[in-house]
Design a protein that fits this description.
alpha+beta, Translation Initiation Factor IF3
């Protein structure tokens, strides 16, 4: 389970405010299929909301199990919404294409950039 500082947690809560839940845990509970879906969502988004049914103690246990199994950090548990974070491991930087010609750009070309 990852740990976060208070400042990191505050920033992640602010980012998560506008998000919608991408995974819903139903009456069947935390099944392997649900864990796979959470894994796929974390690879794509790194910060997700999960809607969980059940009593508060059950939701706390689900949050703990998700964080231990998938090596994520718990950000927030408010009501039936769980917010988890997993930093992306392979961040690919996008580089700008280099210009082939050494001629200076015209005003029109500068305006297009």
């Amino acid at each position: 389970m990852l740990s976060l500082t208070v400042l990191q947690r505050q920033n992640l809560k602010a980012r998560a405010h506008a998000l919608d839940p991408v995974v819903i845990i139903g009456n069947a509970g935390l099944t392997p299929a649900v864990l796979d879906e959470i894994t796929r969502s974390l690879k794509r988004h790194e910060l997700i909301k999960i809607r969980a049914n059940g009593e508060r103690k059950e939701r706390e246990a689900m949050m703990r199990q998700i964080c231990e199994t998938l090596n994520t950090a718990p950000v927030q548990h408010i009501g039936k919404i769980l917010v988890v974070y997993q930093p992306q491991e392979d961040v690919v930087e996008v580089k700008k294409a280099k210009r082939k010609s050494k001629k200076p750009l015209t005003k029109k070309q500068m305006g297009n950039r």
